[in-house]
Amino acid sequence: MSLLEKIRVTQAFLESKGIEKPEFGLILGSGLGELAEEVEDAMIIDYADIPNWGQSTVVGHAGKLVYGTLAGRKVLALQGRFHFYEGNPLEVVTFPVRVMKALGCEGVLVTNAAGGIGFGPGTLMAITDHINMTGQNPLIGENLDEFGPRFPDMSKAYTPEYREIAHKVADKLGIKLEEGVYIGATGPTYETPAEIRAFKTLGADAVGMSTVPEVIVAAHSDLKVLGISCITNFAAGFQEELSHEEVVEVTERVKGDFKGLLKAILAEL
C-alpha cells in the first residue's frame, strides 16, 4: 500500500468515527499531553486502534488521539508523538501530520521538551526556525503531489503571524515567552558537550529529538505552524548530568502556564 493510500485509509477510518474538519492539530510532547484532557466533548481513540498509525513508547506520551473542542476551536490532539529513535521510519513519525492535512486542518501547534543552549529550565520558547541535524529528511522518496511540491520552501516553516499572536497572548497573560532556533538531533543519547558547543556556534538556542521532521512535512503540506519548546534542562556541558526524569519533572512544574498559553493562543488564531 502506498503512503497516499495509507493516508486515505486512515482518513476514512477517522471520519467514520465522526471526526470532521478539525481546525488545528496539536502535537503534545513529553509531559505536555495533559492539555488534551481539557478538550470538551472529547472523542478519544487509542493509537493501537487506528490503521497505519504508529505507537508511542516514551514515558510522558499517553498514546491517544483526542478530538473535540478546546478554547472554542475544533482540534485533533496527539497525546504523544512517534520518534525516529524509537525505530520508526520518518513516514511513521510524520504520518499524523499528513492525516491532519487530509482531514482539513489549517494549522498545527507543535510542542516539545528541549535542552537549553541559550535558555534555562522552565523557559517557554517560540521556535523561529530549525536546524536539521538528523541526517534525514521525511520528503525523500516519491513526492506526494496532492500535498505539496517536490522542492518546498522552508523560509517560513514556522508561521510568523502565529508567532506574533503567541507573543501578544503571552504578554497579556504575563507569561514570558522567549524565541529562538531549535536544532533537531536523532537521539536517543543526549548530546555531548562538544556537540552542544558546535550547535551553539551554529546559532541554536534549544536542542531536541523531535519536531523537525513533523514541521518539514507540515511545510510541504502548506500547513501553518506554531512551535513552542519547553526548556526542561540545560544542554550537556551546562549542567552536571541529564535525565528524562528531569524532563518530566520540569514540564510538570510549568504545565499550568504552558496549557494556559496554548489555550489562549488557540482562541486567538
Can you describe what's shown?
By secondary structure, the chain is α/β, with parallel strands linked by helices. The chain is built from six helices and nine strands. It has helices at 3-16, 90-103, 160-173, 193-202, 212-220, 244-268, and strands at residues 24-28, 40-46, 64-70, 73-79, 107-116, 124-132, 177-184, 206-208, 224-234. It has a five-stranded mixed beta barrel with strand order 5-8-7-6-9, surrounded by four helices. The protein is globular.
Strand content: 15-25%
Q: State Rg.
A: 17 Å
Helix content range of the residues, please?
25-40%
Largest sheet: 5 strands, mixed, barrel
Shape: globular
- The number of helical runs is 6
Quote the average pLDDT.
92
Structural class of the secondary elements? alpha/beta
Order of helical and strand elements = HEEEEHEEHEHEHEH
Strand numbers in spatial order across the main sheet: 5-8-7-6-9
Which stretches are low in confidence, meaning pLDDT under 50 for 5 or more residues running? none
Distance between the termini: 36 Å
Total number of beta strands: 9
Features:
single chain, 269 residues, alpha/beta, 6 helices
Layout of SSEs?
Blueprint: H1 3-16, E1 24-28, E2 40-46, E3 64-70, E4 73-79, H2 90-103, E5 107-116, E6 124-132, H3 160-173, E7 177-184, H4 193-202, E8 206-208, H5 212-220, E9 224-234, H6 244-268
Parallel strand pairs: 1-4, 1-5, 5-9, 6-7, 7-8
Antiparallel strand pairs: 2-3, 3-4, 5-8, 6-9
Helix pairs in contact: 1-2, 2-5, 3-6
